[in-house]
Structures are given as C-alpha cells and as structure tokens.
Amino acid sequence: MPNERAEHLLHSWSRLEAAVGGSIGTEPEDAVLRLCCEPRFAEFREQLEYCSSVCTLLRRYGRISDEYALCPSDSMLDLLDTVLHRLEKPETVLDVMTPLSGLLVADEDTNVLATMDHMKARGLSHIPLLRQQCVTSVFSVETVFQAVLDGRITVGSKTVMRDLCEYLPLEKHMNHEYCFVDERTDLLTAADIFEKGHTRIRKLKLLLVTVDGNPGSPLKGVVTPFDLKCCTAQK
Fold it and tell me: What are phi and psi of 174, to 5 degrees?
C-alpha cells in the first residue's frame, strides 16, 4: 500500500509536469516555479513546493528493500488531483456565459421602443445587435440618451435601430466598453479583463464570446461581471 501511494504521487507529478509544459510552455524542471507564478494556482504554492520536495526525494533515492521511504498522505494526493483538474480542464467563459440562444438580441430593423420594453421586462441593460449572428454593436438605454441629448433624433414608435446608427458603434458609447474574447478564455483571465476595464471614466459591461475572439466571428454568448460573481459564490 505505501508503495502504491508513492507510485501514485510520482505518476501524478509526472502528469503535472507534462500538463504544465503543454499549458504554459516550460520545461518539466521549471514546472512548479512557473505554475506558482500563475495567479489561478497561487493558493497552492506552498503545498506544491512541499510535493516537489517529496517527489524529488522519492525519485533521487528510489526504494530501500523494495519500499519507498515515504508514504504520501491522502491530502497530498488529493491536492495534485485538484491542481491537475484545474490545469487540464480549466473553467472557461463557456461555463458561465449566457449562450446566444438565451440572449435578447436585435438587428438594424428592430424597433427601438419595443426593444426597450423587452429589456425592462427581463432586467437587461445591454443587448447585442447582430448581423448574420455577428456583433455589429451593443444597444443600451445610454444609446437613446445620447441621441435625445444631441437633439438631432426623435425616438418614437417607428424608430428602428438603423436610425441610431451614428450612436451605435462600440467606441461611441460614452461610459461603457465591450470586449471580445475567445471561448477558451479562463475565468481568472475574464475577471482580470473586467477589473482592468473598470475605471472612473468607463466601465467594461460585457465580454462578447466568439470562438476565436474575433469580432467578425459569430457570437456564442456574453459574460457579465455578475456571471463571474455567481460562479465564485457557488464554490
């Protein structure tokens, strides 16, 4: 039994080194150092260093009378399983986003006031505008506010999104920003993007998820800061 646990530890450690090399692009001997520099694994730093010392000892001296000198604990084996799972199958924006099928969306021919009623009913502040499933802009109440404030457009019962084209480009939004990310973006990176996109002047409101992060690719879903908070609260 002690030998089996030691072999389990060494096997898991070898998997970890290989996974780190594939994910971060580093040599096996630098695995722990590089892994601990990753924010999503910082909480495991001391434990991983401990595991590294144990594995080094087991590898260097091998067995005495066909037995390993150390028998890893359940906690150590569970730790490596946890780190391996997070490294090999990290949670991504796909796990928390609202998919396209669940979104309220519009196009250039959609009625503005009717859309605002739907947004109010669903508690939405921003919705994507699409053309052939690709994002052309994002509509919000702020869009109408800008148009009315300028005094050049009267928003009435027949106003459609196309009539607000001057105010719809993403860079035209006064206080809000939007960012495209690819579907492989992990949740820690997504949270960091939101944090860096929040300033006193502008706030990042949505992450627009496409397969490759390209604005010209079809939209797969959206992520809000609230989505990330809910995910964290559930853990």
Answer: -65, -50
**Res 87: pLDDT:** 81
Q: Tell me yes or no: is domain 94-233 CATH 3.40.50.300.
A: no
Strand partners, 177: 204
What is d(CA 158, CA 136) in angstroms, rounded to the nearest whole number? 21
Q: Tens of pLDDT along 146-158?
A: 888 888 788 899 9
Q: Write the burial class of residue 63 (CB in 10 Å: 0-12 exposed, 13-18 middle, 19+ buried).
A: exposed
Reduced to 3 states, what is the DSSP secondary structure of residue 201?
Answer: coil
Give me the residues paired with residue 204 across strands.
Answer: 177
DSSP 33-101: HHHHTSGGGGGGHHHHHHHHHHHHHHHHH-EETTEES----HHHHHHHHHHHHHHHS--BHHHHSEEGG
Which residue type, as a one-letter code, is found at position 67? E
pTM over 0.85: no
Residue 104 near residue 138, CB atoms below 8 Å: no
Bridge partners of 131? 134
Q: Is residue 216 very low, low, confident or very high in pLDDT (cuts 50, 70, 90)?
A: very high
Ordered alpha helix ranges (H), the chain: 2-24, 31-36, 45-61, 74-88, 93-96, 112-122, 141-150, 187-196, 225-233
Give dist(CA 86, CA 188) in Å, integer.
12
What are the phi and psi torsion angles at 224 (to 5°)?
Answer: -115, 165
Q: Could you tell me if 72 and 56 are in contact, meaning their C-beta atoms sit under 8 angstroms apart?
A: no
